[in-house]
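Protocol step 4 of 5: obtain the predicted structure for the target chain.
Materials: sequence only (see below). No template structures provided, no constraints applied. The aim of this step is simply to have a reference model before the mutagenesis design in step 5. Sequence pasted as it appears in the construct record:
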Amino acid sequence: MGKTHVLAIVGPTGAGKSALAMAAAQLVPIEIVSMDSMQIYRGMDIGTAKPTREEQRQVPHHMLDVAEPAEAISVAQYANLAVSILHEIRARGRLPLLVGGTGLYLNALRKGLPLGGAVGSEEVRNRFRAIGEEPGGKARLHGMLAQVDETAAGRLHVNDYRRVIRALEVYEVTGRPISQQNTESLGHDLIVRPMGVTMERDALYQRINRRVDDMMIRGLLREVESLLKAGVMPGCQSMQGIGYKELVSVLQGGFPEKEAVALVKRNTRRFAKRQWTWFRREDDIDWFDMSGSNGMAKALKMIRRFWETVVPEEGGLHGKDRLPKGKSGGNAV
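Step 4 output (structure tokens):
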């Protein structure tokens, strides 16, 4: 299998990635591959802002609903599934378009994934730390480890907080127990060209707040309740997503709904800021400010140019076609 050129739309949540992808489908023959760590789960539609059934009918979407919410999906598992799909899309003569804000997924597809001791993710680590800081959290983490790596759990005491978190982190990123790790590398025959969408901070935060309100109107609380009734445990990887973990507290702990919704908005805004910081470290992403009237047009022009030059020739963008490195055109989050 030769090298496959892929375009990726990245950026903070709520900035307009999906809208740009749907608009691009009117210009070039694309198939969308979700690069979102929550949209992979079945039954989690409202809180993940998953594309609607109508949108999925209009444009082929992939890597949606590929796992049960009780499953733990690693970065390596995602990458192995996605890379086959990306090659298949290109083989059909269409443009593979990655869309999402999960930086770990982008890194795995662009740079491969080391499966030895160097692997790590601050995002994943911090999530496990937050669980450990809750009442009974250390025992909960040790129980989570026992489910995926019984050998490591048997070696580690429940109070060996740092090593338990490390073992969970390695498993989530690589899909392999830390007790079975080696130093091989997971690489892919992809050349991923990222482009980023952003938005002026205040406008983005207002959008996020409105979107959370809309999710609640559409039934996010009922969605969370149905997951719990189906046996999905609050400690599952899927239920750590923003919007789900806060509303679990409403349903199981009697936390006021109004305060929970405020937390969802705050946590989503903070998440968007972390995404922006993460992606800004990648110095080869061309940024398009979607706050203005011409941001969408400029982004679509780049997508068309990518299709007309890179895809037919399986070559790279010419220097004159690049925007200035790191250009964003606005003050994002």
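Step 4 remarks: The mean pLDDT is 86. The radius of gyration is 20 Å.
Proceed to step 5.
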